[in-house]
Amino acid sequence: MTDASHRDHPESILVSGCGIAGLGLALAFGGSAHPVTILDRDPPPPDGSPEDVFATWERRGATQLRHSHVFLGRLTTLIRTRYPALMDELFREGARVLCFKDGLSPALKPVYTPAPGDEDLQILFSRRTTLESVIRRFVTRFDNIRFVTDAGVRGLVLQRDASAIRATGLNVEMDGQTQTLSADIVVDASGRNTNFPDWLRAEGVEVSEEHSPAGILYFTRHYRLRDGMEEPPRDLAPLGGDLGYIKYAVFPADNRHFSITLATPDIETNLRTAIMRPEIFQGLCENLIGCKAWVADEISVPVSAIYAMGNLESLWRSYLRGGEAQVLNFFAVGDAAVRTNPLYGRGCSTGMVHAHLLKTVLDEIHDPRQRAIVLEQRTHAALRPFYDAMVHQDRAAIRRARYERNPQHRPRLRARVTQNFVENGIGPATRGNMDVARAFSRAFHMIDDPSGWLKRPDTLMTILSYWARPKAWKQANGLYPPVLGPSRQEMLSKLGLPA
Ligand SMILES: Cc1cc2nc3c(=O)[nH]c(=O)nc-3n(C[C@H](O)[C@H](O)[C@H](O)COP(=O)(O)OP(=O)(O)OC[C@H]3O[C@@H](n4cnc5c(N)ncnc54)[C@H](O)[C@@H]3O)c2cc1C
Does the C-beta of 349 come closer than 6 Å to ligand 1? Predict the structure, then answer.
């Protein structure tokens, strides 16, 4: 079906959830002929500055809202190229971008020359509250998009006949009463805690799911730069790193804010309990070279509690059975269908991409069975390689965290060679060679396939040539990162925690 024919037969769309995927749908369908109603159990963002929104927006439906968020090139490029006015609005509200050049190693930065495609490798720095509230305000201006807030979706309305089960609406609780809203298309964008799979299973629908643990717990604290102070230079240490027993990342944000996330493996029981104590969180940051300068008392001041989040896992969900659609006119996008470890910062890009994929499928295909099948195929093509790569990395990180607790552990030969290749080949090559840095960055930002870059003969040859060079040469040329922090035993002893 083309856009023109849609104008003749616009389909009404009911969306459960106004997080990132719901907002992605609002952007994608904004200005189209389809009337779209987006329901959310939470209240709307308060009017006011980004500070007011951050301080007061109640968001029980998206409990990750006040955790650190960074928005990768895939999402930033989508906004910049399709919705430039939105990008301008984000900048006006204090969001910023980090360009490819800004993220280069000290060895590469001075020799950088721009190349086509580098503009796609920009990270958007913004608190999630700022991003969400600005997008929300932007899409509210489309006549065909309607938001209904404080509206909890309580059930999916289905119609059965001999040939199919069709979604026809939602039961929604508003003002203490349950109402049924009807639509041609129903979309689940309710995020990680969606109830739709349970509701559909109860109706005999087979929901297939793959789960894989992230193996970590997430701890976030927000800070503001003191008046007159600037962010520490980024060349001193990487903004993110993995020490096995702890991972850290600094997330610059809008309006002189930044946040720090520390992630501990599930099995670090003492550390993960103690980390909620402000003095332990601060002590960890002061001992991690990438965080130390940011949390110095003269530079910044903490402006939030320490937020914790667990139960993190990757999930791939499908409503097809044997490749065939089971429920017609029903689709799931974002975390409700594909969820990944937040550490990689890919969930919001995934949700936005997924929402836009649904728009193209509904535009191009009229047959409801085909729509379900094609959306699944395109989701697979666009997102599955990243999902698989992240699950693979999570499994390796879980193993590493286990070994980290045992100083006697000696990895097997294959593991030692892989680690050596990463540390002395891939790492130095991404810091010393512009083409490798670009290829790595394109995969990191979800622009290119996550592992394809490593298989390209030219890239692989360059990496191998770096691997073969003497360590002393690589050290002299600044191709190794600094030591990120003390060993596990040292850190725990510095913090007065039992090992
Ligand atoms: C700790 C943490 C840190 C993260 N950091 C990053 C990051 O740095 N970068 C990144 O790209 N991604 C990150 N992510 C992932 C990202 O937050 C999600 O992938 C993204 O929010 C998914 O969007 P969504 O719209 O599918 O779900 P959500 O954004 O969670 O939105 C779901 C919406 O549905 C509503 N809802 C739920 N149930 C109902 C109901 N019954 N009735 C009505 N409304 C309902 C909720 O109120 C909510 O508004 C992080 C995730 C976590 C957990």
Answer: yes
Q: What is the CATH number of the domain that holds 286?
A: 3.30.9
Alpha helix segments (H runs only) across 365-433: 368-404, 413-421, 427-432
**Among 360, 391, 408, residue at a domain's last position:** 408
Are 252 and 223 within 8 A, CB to CB? no
What is the spatial distance between Cα 391 and Cα 380, in angstroms, rounded to a whole number?
Answer: 15
The answer to whether the CB of 39 is under 6 A from ligand 1 is yes
Phi (first) and psi of residue 6, to 5 degrees: -65, -35
The pLDDT tens digits for 56-110 are: 999 999 999 999 999 999 999 999 999 999 999 999 999 999 999 999 999 999 9
Domain boundary among 309, 324, 358: 309
Atom 41 (ligand 1) nearest CA? 153
**H-helix or E-strand spanning residue 443:** helix 434-444
pTM more than 0.90 = yes
215 to each of 105, 264, 265, 393, how far by Cα in Å?
30, 8, 6, 11
Q: Select from 129, 31, 47, 126 the least CA-distant residue to 87.
A: 126
